[in-house]
Amino acid sequence: MSDRPERPPFRSAGRPFAAKGGARPFPPKRKGGPGRPPAWEGENDVALLYGWHTVSEALANPARRFRKILATENAANRLQEEGFPLPVAPEIVRPSEIDKLLGSDAVHQGLLAEAEHLPSPPLKKVAKSDLVLVLDQITDPHNVGAIVRSAAAFAVGAIVTTARHSPVATGVLAKSASGGLEHVPFCLVTNLARALEELKASGMLVVGLDSEGPADLEDTAMRPPMALVLGAEGKGLRQLTRETCDVLARIDLPGAIKSLNVSNAAALSLGIARRALKRAG
After folding, report:
1. What CA–CA distances, in Å, run from 74 to 10, 100, 128, 175, 226?
2. In angstroms, rounded to a whole number, what is the distance separating the alpha carbons of residues 127 and 173?
3. Residues of the chain with pLDDT > 90: what percent?
4. What is the location of CATH 3.40.1280.10 in the chain?
5. What CATH number should be reported for the domain whose range is 123-280?
6. Where do the H-state alpha helices sit in 178-261?
7. For residue range 266-280, what is the model confidence (pLDDT) as tens digits?
8. What class has domain 11-115?
């Protein structure tokens, strides 16, 4: 006899994620309350997760609260065969029904879930991490999602960003993160410069990535705990953010092209930082 908890049965869809002209696909909007970070004030209180890696990683995260799961028969069978916990019974649908909700370009692999947003951890807790990533008004969800994926790969403790001028952790961002949202929490703050000052006061070294930095990041002295700060593509770090950093550094590239997409720069700089922190003990 198996010790595995009994899973809820699969069932066919009634009116899931109502499409245009149907019932409302999201719950009513509401203001942030205890445990609800300010980024979701005025936003629909829901995260849409789609794609195998995104949904399966969320299912494996006990902190994630699900409202609905839509799955094709093949995807539902795969979830069951691989033993993923199913907190709600999946509604079995055809792939075309998910296409209608997400658009034909979305690669959903037969899975779409509606879940609660994960809570934003307090900055004091974030400051206990050995490596933190700070995003200064990076707004493109594809880029932020790719950054989250790299952050999860390099064991970043948290991503600190502003509640405003940053994309919500849902949809395209979640898909691009490929499950990384379940491993790297977003710490949402009102004032980034003030948050950096708090991190510095807790003992963190704050290193800003800047094309005009005085030295290559590989030649910059780094030690844990550390916060690596990245600015928006094109604009870079804002002036006050730049002034708040302990040190600025650049990435020197040997090839003909001297700049990287911000998500690629994040992956490269995190790799450099991780090696430096390992050497520093």
Report:
1. 12, 19, 42, 20, 44
2. 25
3. 75
4. 123-280
5. 3.40.1280.10
6. 192-201, 239-244
7. 999 999 999 999 999
8. alpha beta
**CA-to-CA separations, 153 to 74, 146, 149, 201, in angstroms, rounded:** 29, 11, 6, 27
CA angle 139, 48, 116 (to 5 degrees): 100
- Name which of 3, 110, 135, 132 is nearest 53 in CA terms: 110
What is the overall mean pLDDT for the chain?
86
Once rounded to an integer, what is the mean pLDDT over residues 187-202?
97
Nearest CA to 98 out of 116, 74, 121 is that of 74
pLDDT tens digit sequence for 95-117: 999 999 988 788 999 999 999 99
Q: What is the pTM of this model?
A: 0.83
Q: Is the pLDDT of residue 153 over 60?
A: yes
- Tokens 């839509």, located at residue: 70
Task: List, by residue range, all CATH 3.30.1330.30 domains of the chain.
Answer: 11-115
The SS3 of residue 272 is: helix
Give just the sign of the alpha carbon dihedral 4, 108, 73, 25: positive
